[in-house]
Amino acid sequence: MAFPTSARDLLWSVAGRSGLAPLAGSLIHSPASLRILMYHDVPGPLIPIFESHLKWLARRFEFLTPRDLLLEPKAGKRPKALLTFDDGCIDNYELVAPLLESYSLRGLFFVCPGFAELSREACFALMERSSVLLEEKTRDSRWQRMSRQQIIDLDRRGHGVGSHTMTHTPLTKIDQPEMLREIRDSAATLESWLGRPCPFFAWTYSWNGVTRESLAAALQCHTYCFSPCSGVNHWPQPRRLFWRTGVDVSKPVSHLQTQVSGIVDYLYRTQRLELSTLWDSVTASPPGELQRPSGFGGPL
User: Fold this and answer.
1) pLDDT tens, 254-267?
2) Lowest CB count within 10 Å: 1, 44, 102, 166, which one?
3) Is residue 215 within 8 Å of 283, Cβ to Cβ?
4) pTM for the whole structure
């Protein structure tokens, strides 16, 4: 059953304010869990709300950095959390990254390098094609994307940079040659900018915005794949397909408390099963068909 947005927001807020959502969240998170949060743009007026999210999360989780995923995982005494940001919006560079650093935190920013040197108007024009493919009637035109130098600077400051395809095209709506270009060109571009392979990939749009072929192509270029599908990840032995919980940065902490309480995870249980089945079919490919990027080990 689909609730109207206003009714859902009211239920989310009530669950958070009543204490039920925080209690449920404390029961499903443990030192063996990793919650990955998925933000997008964070405009200036919403920074105070975002900072309230950080403060609440810090009281309940131990934050990981993207580089922690590339090191030997270590267990701890608290549940883990990782902050991710999609689309490479310039406010992520100008506002979000400095705020994270003021708390000694680092985020993982999924960028589309095809937008890096374009004006806001040119970015919007390029996104119009995705709108047509998805049969969307409107698209928010406020986004200005990070430049190449800003992406490189984030990496140098200890943040993670991941691929979000070359131009944010819906992979299930284009033919295979273009799909391969979107994934491979983005990976190659980021490698040339950062000076090393990019281990992180997040596909665009919805949980089912990936196919077996595009997932296989992503795994040929990257070590980890991040889905827009809510769930709790295992730690310190995570698999290479990560679940992420989308967060609405315009909503207060009570809303966030419900989003990480397990309710949203329950709603996505069937989707996680479908994606796990797809993942298993790709990673079970015969040797040689799926090659792991050099420099990274561990089980798929």
Assistant:
1) 999 999 999 999 99
2) 1
3) no
4) 0.88
